[in-house]
Amino acid sequence: MKPETIKAIFTNLLFVIGVILLIVGFAQGTRTAVKLLTFDQYPLDSYEETKCDQPPYAMPVPAPLEGGKTAPVVDEGAARQTKADCVTQLTHQRKVRQTEDIVGAITMLVSGGALVYFFRRYILK
Known about the structure:
This protein is mainly α. The protein is built from three helices and two strands. 7% of the residues are buried.
């Protein structure tokens, strides 16, 4: 193979990869923007959204009795605190997911744009 042919294949391949990255980055950015505009809170997966309604967060906490035994009496304060901790954790997870989605979309757009920009001159020759 001639060196010009290898160079042409390499530059064309990198240009195509750049275009693919641009398309995927644009799609991810659009999806993230729609989630931000549509929902009051940034959505998580369904199992994460309902985790605070599942045991052990939704189970009543037995109150301790004298002698180290537990009674069927429910300590409402502890149950509310456990659920509040779960909701706080969900809020943090929403912020992390939102940040990851935004960073992923921007990274793909920038890297795809850079590849397209630098290798377009070889393609357009």
